[in-house]
From TrEMBL:
EC number: 1.2.1.3
Protein's name according to its UniProt entry: Aldehyde dehydrogenase family 7 member A1
PROSITE patterns in the cross-refs: ALDEHYDE_DEHYDR_GLU
CDD domains: ALDH_F7_AASADH
Keyword NAD: yes
Source organism of this protein record: Salix purpurea (Purple osier willow)
Family: Belongs to the aldehyde dehydrogenase family.
Keywords, alphabetical: NAD, Oxidoreductase
Domain Aldehyde dehydrogenase, chain residue ranges per copy: 37-488
Length: 491
């Protein structure tokens, strides 16, 4: 079926049409749930229709998936690694189209859309190496003539629930590792990015089919909270990896805990950048700009709080206001755009509501603060001067709103950094080693990501990604995150 607009025709190259079935169940595309329309956030016009899955579709998919797990976990892990390598190769051939789709459906700018798909390719490469290193250990036994070993086995089925803002990279962080560890994957993408869920699934399914493997090794559903809840409750799913808001994440965790399942949480952030009096101000300003405005403030690692030392407060703020005035706002697919739209008209309303609350709590808007009249969900990049103690500062407003505050000492800045419920990412700009070591030490930042002289956003897949406190405590991607996707036995 043809697309409403010529510029959407590239979608047929990644297996999409104007009407799509949203569940991949045991090698078949089907769906018996409601029909939803995927919208372009830049103009709120339809891209294509998707039929979502029903709970019955889920049940059928899960039956096949748990059956497939018995086959997949017996494939030697380097061979599983080779399948993930082939997924990486398939992604390379469709990098441009998939990146364009991410930009079109989510609303982030094109280089970020392509970057997101590249991140999965990198995860594939990482996981191929990992597939030969799922090593256990030999432990000295205290008993004579005994040996003691530690061994890692697959969990079975891993459930992955993802958020709209990274509609495919987060799947990649989880699925690449889960698959080489010998697990089948059940994925529910975000309800507002169903085309990305379908396109990614088609690509993975193609690789499984080419290798004559059970298709249910990778099972996926477009849908909302009902499918998410079914995953959380399902005793056949040993690990649920959830990415999204702290509010929903807490509900999911409680449901999974009730059945003694394992949960890996990647939840909301509220990230600060501290600029010390000795910092390279130009470097800091450039970093803050992209950390606060990039992805229209819809990254979990977006910089939401800027803490400036009192002696450089005005000079740094003036430079920042200056670069904010030059931000190019527009179609995320157009070259040169830095700030695209918010993802939905609901997000735009939350921005407006947020600005009202900010004002009512004493916040002073220094720049921005309004929605932009247009068909799309555009808002102005905003800087607010506000007290670190205002209640609104403790919450994550998922929009390009930056709170600026003043401090006098490092200790005070670290206290402000740590004073919010969330603990994802943080950064300090300084040239002094003694400050850096305090910052990364036991009395420094309480976040999972502790940066120096780089922004809060952007993470390398080689490190473990995740945060503390209300961010959920999970760690994904690199380092030894793989251990969460396996069960350890001591024998
Ligand atoms: P959200 O919590 O609204 O939704 C996330 C996912 O949960 C979606 O797939 C949704 O359909 C599903 N869901 C909703 N209700 C459910 C339920 N009752 N049971 C099970 N699943 C349910 O989040 P969002 O608006 O899509 O994403 C933005 C949030 O995600 C922000 O808070 C952001 O900080 C966070 N996030 C965190 C990370 C991280 O790595 N820490 C990464 C990306 C996004």
């Amino acid at each position: 079926m043809g697309f409403a607009r010529k510029e959407y025709e590239f979608l047929s190259e990644i297996g999409l049409s104007s009407r799509n079935l949203g569940c991949y169940v045991d090698g078949t595309w089907k769906a018996n749930g409601p029909v939803v329309i995927s919208l372009n956030p830049a103009n709120n016009q339809a891209i294509a229709e998707v039929v979502e899955g029903s709970v019955e579709d889920y049940e059928e998919g899960m039956r096949a998936c748990s059956e497939a797990a018995k086959t997949w976990m017996q494939v030697p892990s380097p061979k599983r690694g080779d399948i993930v390598r082939q997924i990486g190769d398939a992604l390379r051939t469709k990098l441009q189209q998939l990146g364009r789709l991410v930009s079109l459906e989510m609303g982030k700018i094109l280089p970020e859309g392509i970057g997101e798909v590249q991140e999965i390719i990198d995860m594939c490469d990482f996981s191929v190496g990992l597939s030969r290193q799922l090593n256990g250990s030999v432990i000295p036994s205290e008993r004579p003539n005994h040996a003691m070993l530690e061994m890692w086995n697959p969990l079975g089925v891993v459930g992955v629930i993802t958020a709209f803002n990274f509609p495919c990279a987060v799947l990649g962080w989880n699925a690449c590792i889960a698959l080489v560890c010998g697990n089948c994957v059940v994925w529910k993408g975000a309800p507002t990015t169903p085309l990305i869920t379908i396109a990614m699934t088609r690509l993975v399914a193609g690789v499984l089919e080419k290798n004559n493997l059970p298709p249910a090794i990778f099972t996926s559903f477009c849908g909302g909270a009902d499918i998410g809840q079914a995953i959380a409750k399902d005793t056949r799913i040993s690990l649920v990896s959830f990415t999204g808001s702290s509010k929903v994440g807490q509900m999911v965790q409680q449901t999974v805990n009730q059945r003694f399942g394992k949960c890996l949480l990647e939840l909301s952030g509220n990230n600060a950048i501290i600029v010390m009096d000795d910092a390279d101000i130009q470097l800091a300003v450039r970093s803050v700009l992209f950390a606060a405005v990039g992805t229209a403030g819809q990254r979990c690692t977006t910089c939401r709080r800027l803490l400036l030392h009192e002696s450089i407060y005005q000079i740094a703020l003036d430079q920042l206001l200056d670069v904010y005035k030059q931000v190019k706002i527009g179609n995320p697919l157009e070259k040169g755009t830095l700030l695209g739209p918010l993802h939905t008209s609901e997000s735009r309303k939350s921005f407006e509501k947020g600005i009202e609350i900010i004002k009512s709590q004493g916040g002073k808007i220094l720049i921005g603060g309004s929605v932009i009249e247009s068909e799309g969900n555009f808002v102005q990049p905003t800087i607010v001067e506000i007290s670190p103690n205002a209640d609104v500062v403790k919450e994550e407003l998922f929009a390009p709103v930056l709170y600026v505050m003043k401090f006098q000492t490092l200790q005070e800045a670290v206290e402000i950094n740590n004073s919010v419920p969330q603990g994802l990412s943080s950064s300090i700009f300084t040239r002094k080693p003694e400050i850096i070591f305090k910052w990364i030490g036991p009395l420094g930042s309480d976040c999972g990501i502790v940066n120096v002289n780089i922004p809060t956003n952007g993470a390398e897949i080689g490190g473990a990604f995740g945060g503390e406190k209300a961010t959920g405590g999970g760690r994904e991607a690199g380092s030894d995150s793989w251990k969460q996707y396996m069960r350890r036995s001591t024998w």
